[in-house]
Design a protein that fits this description.
- The protein is of the alpha/beta class.
- The protein is built from eleven helices and ten strands.
- 48% of the residues lie in helices and 18% in strands.
- Strands 5-6-4-9-10 form a five-stranded mixed sheet, sandwiched between helices. The chain has a three-stranded parallel sheet with strand order 1-2-3, sandwiched between helices. A two-stranded antiparallel ribbon has the order 7-8.
- Helix 3 links the parallel strand 1 and strand 2.
- Helix 2 packs parallel to helix 3.
- The longest helix is centred in the middle third of the chain and has 22 residues.
- 32% of the residues are buried.
């Protein structure tokens, strides 16, 4: 019945008759989600869950316990074994579908999360934009880029560069927490590119706050002698020696308040010009699209 219910929602389902078969199936093909009963031949649902969560190759697979054992003690034991959710029988099919969708959505977001900044990545950003476009919301997108980051990374090394990426993500998050809203979205496109999806009336305040926080941190990325000097000697992308100022933020802001947005690719395309104009200005700055 569970198989038929979930297949009707478009999921691909595999069945295992007992605990050992379930573990063998998981080892053969790691699933996106594992639904376990508690009372199974060979190994209990608790045992299977513990084995899955102990294995580094399968520990991130979410486990939903689906069982007639509905006491608090059974639920606690299930969560202690590593279960991510627990649904007692009898259950409503709509609730099962909803819980499965929620767990899979969480898995997609976690898999897409940038390991350096901890922020959602490209797929989550696209989904957020698609959702707002579909709901015909008025929104603004702040595209945030680090200036002079490549020569900085070449000069100080990747470990220090990763610290700068983490600090940048934190500064953007703090800006949204301080002057934004719980509905705002912060993402990490990759490399030194970030994005904030907010409302047109909050975009400027978030940009100002993020720049202020980042500019306080930026000198601390450098050693005392470099801070005193105010620049680093490095090479540009063509290999020519140059002097580079400290890293800074360039923010290009696009908004549906100016022009409607019909698809995700349009957002990125429209951000190119304001971000380019921001980069042509000294220091950290933000520029709205015309």
């Amino acid at each position: 019945m569970v198989r038929d219910l979930l297949e009707s929602s478009g999921h691909e389902i595999g069945l295992a008759a007992d605990g050992p078969s379930a573990l063998a199936s998981v080892r053969t093909r790691v699933p996106d989600l594992l639904i376990l009963d508690l009372n199974m031949p060979g190994l209990s649902g608790y045992d299977v869950c513990r084995a899955v969560k102990r294995n580094p190759g399968t520990s991130r697979v979410p486990v939903l316990m689906l069982t007639a054992q509905s006491s608090v003690e059974h639920k606690l034991e299930g969560f202690e074994a590593g279960a991510d959710d627990y649904l007692p029988k009898p259950f409503d099919g709509r609730e099962l579908r909803a819980r499965v969708s929620a767990l899979l959505r969480l898995v997609r977001r976690e898999a897409d999360r940038n390991p350096t900044s901890g922020l959602p990545g490209g797929h989550a950003i696209d989904e957020e934009l698609l959702s707002r476009i579909a709901r015909k919301e008025t929104f603004a997108v702040c595209y945030i880029d680090l200036d002079n980051f490549k020569p900085f990374a070449d000069h100080f090394g990747f470990a220090v560069a990763d610290d700068v990426i983490r600090e940048t993500g934190d500064a953007i998050r703090h800006a949204v927490s301080a002057v934004g809203s719980s509905d705002d979205f912060v993402g990490h496109i990759g490399g030194d590119d970030f994005v904030v999806i907010t409302t047109p009336d909050r975009a400027e305040a978030i940009s100002v706050h993020a720049i202020a926080s980042f500019d306080l941190l930026a000198p601390l990325f450098y050693d005392a002698a470099t801070r005193e000097r105010g620049y680093i000697d490095a090479h540009d992308r063509q290999g020519r020696p140059m002097r580079f100022p400290f890293v800074s933020l360039s923010i290009g802001i696009v908004s549906t308040a100016l022009h409607p947005i019909a698809h995700v690719a349009e957002v990125a395309q429209r951000s190119i010009d304001p971000k380019k104009r921001a980069k042509e200005l000294p220091g950290s700055t933000y520029v709205f699209e015309d």
